[in-house]
Design the sequence.
C-alpha cells in the first residue's frame, strides 16, 4: 500500500492507494476511510463498476455457480505481491501488472475435506490447457471464444505508470508473457523507474515517459524491488536476485533456463564494471520410462487430473529437475518408479519432507498418477532424443 498527498477535486487529500489482485486501482482517504475512486488498470470483467460507497456491482456473466465462466483477472491477480512504487515528482504509481483470464468452475455439493485444497471451486489457466484431457480442453476453448468482447486468456505482463488522480495509465512497458515476468519496482528522484525481470534483466525507464534508457543482463531472475542508497557521496542501486518457489520451473523464458539459479545480491553504480553472469546451466537427460504391464492410456488420463489437482503445486516442473527444491516427477529413474507406492503411500521419504498420502489416495489412484508421469516422461525422453539427433 502507498501513502501520498494528492490534490483531488481541487483540494489536498491524504490518501492510501493500492492495486490489488482484482484489477482495480483504489484511492481512499486515509484519514476518514472514505472511498474516493477505483478504476481498472488491466482488463477485468468480474464487475460492472462501483457505487459511490465503493461497493462493486457484480457482472452476472462472470458468475460461475450455475456453470463455468471466463473471468478476468485470474486468481494470480492483475497485480500480485510484487512491490509497486510511487513518485511524488511525476505523481505516478508504477505497477507490475498482468492481464490474464481463467475459466472458473463451481464444485456442486462441495464439502470440506481434511487435507484438501478446500476452496469449493477450481480455475483453469491458459498455460495448463494443453495438459488437460481432450474433452476438457475442448470445453475450455469453446468458453474462451464464445464472447468476442473478451481478450485472449493468455498471460500478458507489463509495467504500468498510473495516474491516481485521473485514474488512467500514462504509459505501459511490456514485460513478457510469463507469470511474474516482472519483479518489484523502484522509482527515484532522478526521474527513473527500475525493474528486474524473471528473464534475468534489470531495466531502467524514464519515469515520466516510459522510454527504456538501459538494460543490464544479470543472468539471474529478479523478483524483489531494487533499492537506491548513497555511500560516500556516490549513488548505488542494489537488488536481491534469485528465482525460486515450488512452481519456478513453469517460466519458459526465465533466466534459470539458461544459467544456474541461486541467490545473489547485485549492486550497481554509474561507471561500474561488467555484471558477472552465473555459470551456464547444464541440463540433464530424461531417462526412458519403465515398461509397466498395468499401464493404460485411460489410467494416464485419470492420473493427469489427480496430478494437476494435488501434486502439481510442488512437483509441476517438466524436465527441469535442478530448478526447484521439489523433485521433478517427470524424470524418475526406474529404481524410483519401482518404489513409487512405498513413497506415496508408505512414507519412504517422510524424513525428507514427503509424508505418506495413505489418507488421501487409494492404491488405484496412486497407480493413475504414476501412469500419467510415465506417459509424460516418455514424451520428454522422445523430445530430448529428437533434439540430440538434430544437433
Sequence:
Amino acid at each position: 500500500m502507498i501513502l501520498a498527498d494528492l490534490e483531488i477535486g481541487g483540494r489536498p487529500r491524504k490518501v492510501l492507494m493500492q492495486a490489488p489482485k482484482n484489477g482495480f486501482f483504489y484511492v481512499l482517504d486515509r484519514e476518514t476511510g472514505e472511498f474516493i475512486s477505483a478504476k481498472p488498470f488491466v482488463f477485468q470483467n468480474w464487475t460492472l463498476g462501483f457505487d459511490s460507497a465503493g461497493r462493486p456491482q457484480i457482472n452476472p456473466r462472470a458468475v460461475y455457480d450455475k456453470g463455468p465462466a471466463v473471468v478476468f483477472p485470474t486468481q494470480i491477480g492483475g497485480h500480485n505481491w510484487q512491490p509497486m512504487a510511487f513518485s511524488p515528482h511525476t505523481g505516478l504509481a508504477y505497477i507490475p501488472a498482468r492481464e490474464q483470464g481463467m475459466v472458473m468452475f463451481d464444485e456442486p455439493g462441495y464439502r470440506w475435506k481434511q487435507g484438501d485444497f478446500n476452496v469449493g471451486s477450481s480455475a483453469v489457466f491458459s498455460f495448463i490447457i494443453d495438459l488437460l484431457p481432450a474433452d476438457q480442453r475442448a470445453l475450455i476453448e469453446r468458453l474462451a471464444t464464445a464472447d468476442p468482447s473478451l481478450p485472449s486468456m493468455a498471460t500478458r505482463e507489463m509495467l504500468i505508470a498510473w495516474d491516481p488522480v485521473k485514474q488512467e495509465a500514462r504509459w505501459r512497458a511490456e514485460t513478457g508473457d510469463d507469470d511474474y515476468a516482472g519483479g518489484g519496482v523502484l522509482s527515484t528522484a532522478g526521474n527513473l523507474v527500475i525493474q528486474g525481470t524473471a528473464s534475468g534483466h534489470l531495466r531502467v525507464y524514464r519515469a515520466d515517459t516510459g522510454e527504456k534508457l538501459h538494460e543490464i543482463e544479470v543472468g539471474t531472475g529478479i523478483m524483489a524491488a531494487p533499492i537506491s542508497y548513497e555511500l560516500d557521496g556516490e549513488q548505488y542501486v542494489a537488488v536481491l536476485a534469485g528465482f525460486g518457489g515450488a512452481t519456478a520451473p513453469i517460466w519458459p523464458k526465465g533466466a534459470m533456463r539458461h544459467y544456474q539459479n541461486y541467490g545473489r545480491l547485485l549492486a550497481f553504480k554509474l561507471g561500474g564494471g561488467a555484471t558477472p553472469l552465473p555459470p551456464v546451466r547444464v541440463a540433464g537427460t530424461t531417462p526412458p520410462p519403465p515398461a509397466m504391464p498395468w499401464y493404460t492410456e485411460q489410467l494416464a488420463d485419470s492420473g493427469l487430473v489427480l496430478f494437476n489437482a494435488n501434486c502439481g503445486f510442488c512437483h509441476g516442473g517438466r524436465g527441469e529437475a535442478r530448478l526447484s527444491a521439489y523433485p521433478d516427477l517427470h524424470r524418475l529413474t526406474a529404481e524410483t518408479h519401482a518404489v513409487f507406492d512405498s513413497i506415496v503411500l508408505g512414507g519412504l521419504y517422510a524424513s525428507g519432507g514427503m509424508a505418506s498420502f495413505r489418507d488421501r489416495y487409494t492404491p488405484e489412484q496412486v497407480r493413475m498418477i504414476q501412469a500419467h508421469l510415465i506417459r509424460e516422461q516418455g514424451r520428454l525422453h522422445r523430445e530430448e532424443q529428437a533434439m540430440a539427433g538434430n544437433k
